[in-house]
Specification:
By secondary structure, the protein is α/β, with parallel strands linked by helices. Helices cover 40% and strands 17% of the residues. It contains 10 helices and 11 strands. The chain has a 7-stranded parallel beta sheet with strand order 3-4-5-8-9-10-11, covered by helices on one side.
Length: 279
């Protein structure tokens, strides 16, 4: 199994990243109960060889980015911090989309300040704002890239048609969509990413939907995990890595033991028979 993936032809990272959403408070709101432990968790991720950390300005909001800078700046060579803009949090319960160019510019510049960077290696549009044409939102990211504030541009929560539209405006190097053994609704997007050398970053990589349609692969994953003597979460990560060479999973956690188990899963290789069994 290939252990690294290249993002945008210039950024080579290990294929098991870390999603930094859960280092915030309950409901992804406010500070965590123990900020010191959150910072220690981030440092442990880097020590374990994680070279790709995904965050967003809406996580906290602002808390995740701030903790990353506090824990890891000045950043080790080769560590890529990817962040996202385009969602605002007026309250704990709300995740409102704002794809206006002016907002995206302000959000990008604020992320640069919080992360203590002069340029973001990867900046992703967090979600499409249905009140703003995609071309306007993505066009602003292209302008920020031209100005040197962004190295690479990614998109999140898009379908195949929306991805194609975005790619007509800017070189899209990553897509971050929900994807796991129980939810494969982004298979067409994944296929496009694999075909064209775009990194596919599955969010909610360990989620297991209770729907009847997902029952068979979920139960198969359970069987494989039991036979291997590994956790179901580790089997889910191994399945994602084997599913496509474009895959860059970012399981998140607030617990060091879970982090270490997730990172260890990157060394687990499922056989062809096991992949057929899971589907």
């Amino acid at each position: 199994m290939v252990s690294t993936i290249t993002i945008g032809k210039t950024l080579s990272v290990n294929r098991l990243g870390f999603g930094a959403m859960r280092i915030t408070g309950a409901g992804v709101w406010g500070d965590p109960p123990d900020p010191g432990e959150a910072r220690a968790l981030l440092r442990r991720a880097a020590a374990l060889g994680v070279t790709f950390i995904d965050t967003a300005d809406s996580y906290g909001p602002e808390v995740s980015e701030r903790l990353i800078a506090e824990a890891l700046h000045p950043y080790p060579a080769g560590l890529v911090i990817a962040t996202k803009g385009g969602i605002v949090r007026p309250s704990r319960e709300r995740w409102d989309r704002d794809g206006r160019p002016r907002h995206l510019r302000e959000a990008c510049e604020a992320s640069l300040r919080r992360l203590k960077l002069e340029r973001l290696d990867l900046y992703q549009l967090h979600a499409l704002d249905l009140q703003v044409p995609l071309e306007e939102s993505v066009g602003e990211l292209a302008r920020l890239q031209h100005e040197g504030k962004i190295l690479h541009v990614g998109v999140s929560n898009v379908d195949a048609q929306q991805l194609a539209r975005a790619r007509r405006i800017v070189d899209v190097v990553s897509v971050q969509n929900r994807y796991n053994v129980s939810d494969r609704s982004s298979d067409r997007v994944l296929a496009a990413c694999e075909r064209d050398g775009i990194a596919f970053i599955p969010w909610s990589p360990l989620s297991q939907s209770p729907s009847d349609a997902a029952a068979a692969p979920r139960l198969a994953l359970d069987r494989v995990a039991a036979r291997r003597g590994i956790s179901v979460s580790q089997a889910a990560i191994a399945w994602l890595l084997a599913r496509s060479p474009a895959m860059l999973p970012i399981p998140g956690t607030s617990q060091r033991a879970h982090l270490e188990a997730n990172v260890a899963a990157a060394t687990i290789e499922l056989s062809a028979d096991e992949m057929r069994e899971i589907g």
